[in-house]
Amino acid sequence: MIEFYDFKREYNELKNEIHKKINNVLRSGNFIEGNEVKNFESQFSNYIGTKYGIGVNSGSDALYMAIKALDIGEGDEVITPSQTFISTVDAISRNMAIPTFVDVDPDTFCIDTSLIESKITEKTRAIIAVHLYGHPAEMDSIVKIAKKNNLFIIEDCAQAHGARYKGMRVGSMGDIGCFSFYPVKNLGAYGDGGFINLNDEYLSEKIRMMHNYGQSKKNHHDFVGINSRLDELQAAILNVKLEYLDYWNKLRNNLANIYNVRIDGSLYKIPIVKEYVDHAYHMYVIRSCKRDEIKRYLLKNNIQSMIHYPIPVHKQKAYINLGIHDKLPQTEEICNEILSLPMNPWIKNYEVEKICEILNNCGENNE
Ligand SMILES: *Cc1c(COP(=O)(O)O)cnc(C)c1O
Fold first, then answer.
1. Whether the CB of 234 sits within 6 Å of ligand 1
2. How far apart are CA 27 and CA 210, in angstroms?
């Protein structure tokens, strides 16, 4: 079986380093707000290219606190794609703000920037740019629209650790960059974790207090906060794994090249990549109108594949009450055609070659 993500392979390569780090934390007796977190915050914000960085409990909390710190709340509107993981939109709703969905560019699966301005009202406060599957959203246009309309930009980088747009790392181009370290992400912890990147000192201090019960100093709580911290054990693991991130992203790109060359382009639509981005290939997503059939055929041939995501956010039960009548034609078409093929640093070249061969056979047999 070629698994979608085989953690046993990852663990076997990293276990010596990680056990050493974990043992150090256990021996130190310091589990919250220690040196591992401090080091990781400085290393990762440096890697992304922002002045400040705050480790938090999850990508979802990072997005929630980003919106809250910008004082976006009841009655405000936030622009977001619906073609994303639901957590992007939940962060808006948890702040009592209203998501305004914008369709996506069918080439990159990221927000279609030509459609943003028609959705801006006097209540619009921010745009969330989701760098979906590891392909950066069209940041030049997003920055221009945000400036012109006085909107904040929050980057959802949960699928794009290390990706670059015109040389800039995602997470450094908006007002606040949000990351997730959910285990299968390009940089993943062995549990939950998240991160906030930013350059604004005031916002940084505010979020630092917010993620720690609104505490300014011991026993002093200046506003109602939450508990959403990255812990020492996860930070220790992330400190080990951050060293490998660029190398792993390179391996992902190598595998993507094999897929690109070997998959029969007359049978499947392969990903389109803008020439000025460095793709992080969190996912390698092909399109076919026979998607479900192909998924079954792959599984019959011992290959796992997945769908990210089969139901767009605006069609989820949780959001039906918003009464979205606007059509999102690309989003609604894409969800029936997309298929994520195995993509991670632990897959071997020959396995990808095998997947391509089986895919091409399946396509032909279906003619
Ligand atoms: C994973 C993910 C999140 C949520 O991160 P968690 O750490 O699981 O809370 C948010 N947005 C996107 C696009 C994601 O892929």
1. no
2. 29
